[in-house]
Amino acid sequence: MECFLTCDKMNGVIHQITVSFATKCGLEQLLSSEKKENKELNVVSSLGIKYPTLRDNHLHSGEIWLDGKRADDGAEGLWRIYDNLYDFGDFVNLHPGGKDWLRLTKGTDITEAFEVHHLSISPNRLLPKHFVRKAKKPRNSPFTFEENGFYKTLKKKIHEKLKTVPEKPANREWRISHALSHHLYTNTVNDLEISAVEPFLQYLPTEKNLFVRYVSWLYSPMVYAFLYIGHFVRTLIQSAINGEGFTWDILLPFSVPALMFFITRESALFCAIMFLWIIITSSIQFGLVGLNAAHHHPDIFHDGDASRKDITGSHFLVLTNFGDHALHHLFPTIDHGLLEYLYPVFLEICEQFGIEWKLSSQLELVKGQFRQLAKVTPNVIPPKPITRID
Ligand code: HEM
């Protein structure tokens, strides 16, 4: 089990990578022991993650995801890092990365967030001051971040390498659904950007009806079209549920049609239609890129599989198509413009740990995204070591 946890700790973070020796690690046993935890979508976590409380809540909002984590993480109302509980109450407003991170995550396990958002060891030095007690429950996460393991070794090297790269200008719900959920638990049962498009789009390999498997190929652009509007409505509902009062920032998006109306002197109806047109086309583009760029392909790890591709080389394509994605997940606080300089170090550490990195064409990823929607059977045999297919 230790072997499974160690070698697979990055599965949720870098789905482009295949770790070749996961077979030895008792996957089948895990699959069967987790099966009884299945809920609505019969999803099995091959990483041993408990089926997340509130995963099937229809709102699929970041706040609900955090409530589920509070129920599952054994943080006892405090902040959990590994098996230690901390009280950062008096540090929340002093946190150099901003107060939201700690305010949002109170009562949860922040081990992954803590590890991937800091490159230096200075945050570690602050921990003893806030220590309260040991946690009672074991951690509900397969990621161990061992000192001499893949991630910590890579992190030290990247930290060193960053001192030599050319200087370039660097740049609340999104914080939860993307930074705290999707980055840290990519393609697992705990990835809110997977559960949020269910039941319409079901990417995890599990029982699905034919409609969801194949008709989704046709209706998925409709789902993309309503991502923005759906998100806005969900935020309104969540704020109402939380009893949050009205704040003016909620009206910010409407400044665009208002300006169109005052500047162009067209009718209100025309401006509203044009605004909807902009929102919907942008939402389709976002869905197309987000769901077809780097995450969903039968060869990429999805929870349930035994084990677990990327645009690189062009700044424009990288920034508009979510490129350099493996490195972005591993080090989300590093400016995307700097990631290209880090490949030599990344590939060196991959080689050191016997990990292969696979690139594939955009067309193959788009086709793979549809094949993943239709997939119902997890890959129980880990992929063979893979070769580059640019
Ligand atoms: C949910 C957990 C946390 C998240 C998501 C988070 C996120 C961040 C982010 C985004 C930055 C800015 C990094 C940059 O611009 O390069 C940062 C900086 C920092 N954070 Fe956190 N943080 C978390 C918890 C903590 C904790 C628990 C401590 C210490 C007790 C801490 C101490 C620091 C320090 C000292 C910095 C300054 C930069 C550095 O030395 O790395 N953070 N954090």
TrEMBL record:
<feature type="domain" description="Cytochrome b5 heme-binding">
    <location>
        <begin position="60"/>
        <end position="136"/>
    </location>
</feature>
<keyword id="KW-0472">Membrane</keyword>
<dbReference type="Pfam" id="PF00173">
    <property type="entry name" value="Cyt-b5"/>
</dbReference>
<keyword id="KW-0812">Transmembrane</keyword>
<feature type="transmembrane region" description="Helical">
    <location>
        <begin position="245"/>
        <end position="263"/>
    </location>
</feature>
<dbReference type="InterPro" id="IPR005804">
    <property type="entry name" value="FA_desaturase_dom"/>
</dbReference>
<comment type="function">
    <text>May play a role in muscle cell metabolism.</text>
</comment>
<dbReference type="InterPro" id="IPR053100">
    <property type="entry name" value="Cytochrome_b5-related"/>
</dbReference>
<protein>
    <recommendedName>
        <fullName>Cytochrome b5-related protein</fullName>
    </recommendedName>
</protein>
<keyword id="KW-0479">Metal-binding</keyword>
<comment type="similarity">
    <text>Belongs to the cytochrome b5 family.</text>
</comment>
<keyword id="KW-0408">Iron</keyword>
<feature type="transmembrane region" description="Helical">
    <location>
        <begin position="214"/>
        <end position="233"/>
    </location>
</feature>
<keyword id="KW-1133">Transmembrane helix</keyword>
<dbReference type="GO" id="GO:0020037">
    <property type="term" value="F:heme binding"/>
</dbReference>
<dbReference type="InterPro" id="IPR001199">
    <property type="entry name" value="Cyt_B5-like_heme/steroid-bd"/>
</dbReference>
<dbReference type="Pfam" id="PF00487">
    <property type="entry name" value="FA_desaturase"/>
</dbReference>
<keyword id="KW-0349">Heme</keyword>
<dbReference type="GO" id="GO:0046872">
    <property type="term" value="F:metal ion binding"/>
</dbReference>
<dbReference type="GO" id="GO:0006629">
    <property type="term" value="P:lipid metabolic process"/>
</dbReference>
<dbReference type="InterPro" id="IPR018506">
    <property type="entry name" value="Cyt_B5_heme-BS"/>
</dbReference>
<dbReference type="InterPro" id="IPR036400">
    <property type="entry name" value="Cyt_B5-like_heme/steroid_sf"/>
</dbReference>
<feature type="transmembrane region" description="Helical">
    <location>
        <begin position="269"/>
        <end position="291"/>
    </location>
</feature>
